[in-house]
Write a structure and sequence with these properties.
- With about 160 residues, this protein is an alpha+beta fold.
- Helix content is about 25%, strand content about 25%.
- Strands 1, 2, 3, 4 and 5 form a five-stranded antiparallel sheet that branches.
- A hairpin with a 5-residue loop joins strand 4 and strand 5.
- The longest helix has 22 residues.
- It is flat, with a radius of gyration of 30 Å.
């Protein structure tokens, strides 16, 4: 019976360490289009059109609004460590450009080299104008509501 108690006493710390270590693991999330290299290779300029691309790759993630039609298939893989912001680890964009008739002109791939990492300067957005304090915000309109102004009776607005 003593060996059972010792085994249980040793299993407790091991279990606690396992729980702590598993809680520190990063969480990976896939977003957007699921990449299939075989399907991307099947899209050929000069051979395919919009209908065949839609049948092969499915609905695009985004379609260009200006110039020649371009369909974008976008995917990202992010990882997030505990108590931190998600970080993009993998990013792929597959672009299919069409001519006026809807035939494929070209295909292009880009990845992490096109991702811009933005580091905001502050938590506030600078605005033009003067700084107002709490009391001025609270009591600033006293006497201005209902006062005579342009267009009010007796205000000379005519």
């Amino acid at each position: 019976m003593g060996s059972i108690v010792r085994k249980a006493a040793m299993a407790g710390p091991v279990l606690a360490v396992a729980l702590v270590v598993s809680g520190c693991a990063s969480i990976a999330t896939n977003r957007g289009y699921i990449i299939d290299e075989t399907l991307f290779a099947a899209v050929q300029p000069g051979l395919d059109n919009q209908q065949s691309v839609r049948e092969t790759l499915g609905q695009p993630t985004m379609i260009s609004q200006f110039g020649d039609p371009v369909w974008y298939y976008i995917s990202s893989r992010t990882e997030q460590a505990p108590f931190s912001q998600p970080r993009i680890e993998q990013h792929n964009v597959f672009a299919v450009q069409f001519d006026e008739a809807g035939n494929v002109i070209s295909t292009d791939r880009s990845g992490m080299e096109q991702v811009a990492r933005i580091d905001p300067e502050n938590d506030t957005t600078p605005t033009l104008g003067r700084e107002r304090g709490f009391l001025e915000d609270l009591f600033g309109n006293i006497g201005t509501v209902g006062g005579a102004g342009p267009g009010a009776a007796g205000g000379g607005g005519r």
